[in-house]
């Protein structure tokens, strides 16, 4: 199924597409589903090393971008391999991760791509602040070893040792980057919500961005990853869901489609679809949301019906994850929980009875 790319949308709505069979195919794959921006892996995400790009493939990538009107400097946001962890306290593993990281950046510059997104990693059993410093050190080293590609840190859903679950983590890393013109942030809507930042209403959405601007600065915002969340608020679970079917609901995506400062940057879907056509449908949904105006009865009725339809489709999944989350919260309150703070209710009552 083919989708017509919008020339009227003010937003660069797109999706993560396949680059299988040659990196140049990612461009035509994106065009086929109507993307105005897109993401892809630069090489197989399941292995450390990959063969260099053949020169004809690099030329074909540039040709496809020119013919299909994609600017690699602004419209494409490759995603780094998930196993790259520059904050790993094991130096041998950290160096191996850096080699893969630098290889990705070099590939970006071979293709003329201006931004590269990656997960900041985890401090594991190391000192968190020390590993933040190590991460920033590797970013500085990579910047001096490349020419122009911007390194984009993604916010994360987890907590504890995972870097980037708090805005403060990202700010700390940016503070230690020497050339701040070469670093930025990608905000993932699912990760944001799962990390405990409620963005599901206009009030909470505006509050989050006010905090973002205060802590990090909107000038560092380079991209958005657009996902609903299978897990509830503050569940610390990275579980992407189709727009409108998760705990975020459709409203936040309508808000995004009316937020001026998000114009001009890649807004990339990573929702769970078995076929690219699903992304095409969601891009058209986002472009339709851009046209919906509050206060117009006919449009509001159509929006309410669509929101209700999507909400119902995700109802079973939400209930399942809510049950899991509630059980997890309950187990964390038991005396055997490793991170329990203070006596449990049972212990308190037993202590009182002994008195």
UniProtKB/TrEMBL annotation:
Residues 313-329 have a biased composition (Basic and acidic residues). Belongs to the AP endonuclease 2 family. One of its GO terms (cellular component) is mitochondrion. Pfam families: AP_endonuc_2. The keyword Cytoplasm does not apply. Gene3D superfamilies: Divalent-metal-dependent TIM barrel enzymes. Keywords: DNA damage, DNA repair, Hydrolase, Metal-binding, Zinc. Residues 29-286 form the Xylose isomerase-like TIM barrel domain. This is Apurinic-apyrimidinic endonuclease 1. GO terms for molecular function: DNA binding; DNA-(apurinic or apyrimidinic site) endonuclease activity; phosphoric diester hydrolase activity; zinc ion binding. Residues 297-355 are annotated as: Disordered. GO terms for biological process: base-excision repair. The lineage of its organism: Eukaryota, Fungi, Dikarya, Ascomycota, Saccharomycotina. Its cofactor is Zn(2+).
């Amino acid at each position: 199924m083919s989708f017509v790319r919008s020339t009227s949308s003010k937003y660069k709505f797109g999706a993560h597409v396949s680059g299988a069979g040659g990196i140049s195919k990612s461009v035509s794959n994106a065009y086929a589903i109507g993307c105005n921006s897109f993401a892809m892996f630069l090489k197989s995400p399941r292995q450390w090393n990959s063969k260099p790009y053949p020169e004809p493939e690099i030329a074909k990538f540039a040709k496809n971008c020119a013919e299909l009107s994609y600017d690699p400097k602004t419209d494409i946001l490759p995603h780094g391999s998930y196993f790259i962890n520059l904050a790993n306290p094991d130096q041998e593993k950290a160096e191996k991760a850096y080699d893969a990281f630098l290889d990705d950046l070099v590939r970006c510059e071979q293709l003329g791509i201006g931004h590269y997104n990656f997960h900041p990693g985890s401090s594991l059993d190391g000192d968190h602040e020390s590993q933040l410093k190590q991460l920033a050190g590797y970013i500085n080293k990579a910047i001096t070893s490349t020419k122009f590609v911007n390194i984009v840190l993604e916010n994360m859903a987890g907590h504890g040792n995972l870097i980037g679950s708090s805005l403060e983590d990202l700010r700390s890393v940016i503070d230690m980057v020497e050339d701040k013109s070469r670093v930025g942030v990608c905000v993932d809507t699912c990760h944001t919500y799962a990390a405990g930042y409620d963005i599901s209403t206009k009030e909470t959405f505006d509050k989050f961005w006010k905090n973002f601007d205060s802590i990090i600065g909107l000038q560092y915002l380079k991209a958005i990853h657009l996902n609903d969340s299978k897990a509830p608020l503050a569940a610390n679970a990275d579980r992407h869901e189709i727009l409108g079917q998760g705990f975020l609901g459709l409203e936040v995506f309508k808000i995004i489609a009316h937020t001026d400062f998000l114009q001009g940057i890649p807004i990339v879907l990573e929702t769970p679809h078995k076929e690219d056509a699903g992304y095409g449908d969601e891009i058209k949904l986002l472009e339709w949301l851009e046209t919906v105006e509050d206060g117009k009865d006919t449009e509001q009725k159509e929006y309410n019906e669509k929101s209700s339809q999507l909400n119902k489709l995700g109802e079973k999944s939400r209930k399942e994850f809510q049950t899991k989350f509630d059980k997890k919260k309950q187990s964390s309150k038991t005396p055997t929980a490793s991170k329990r703070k203070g006596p449990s209710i049972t212990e308190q009552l037993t202590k009182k009875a002994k008195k």
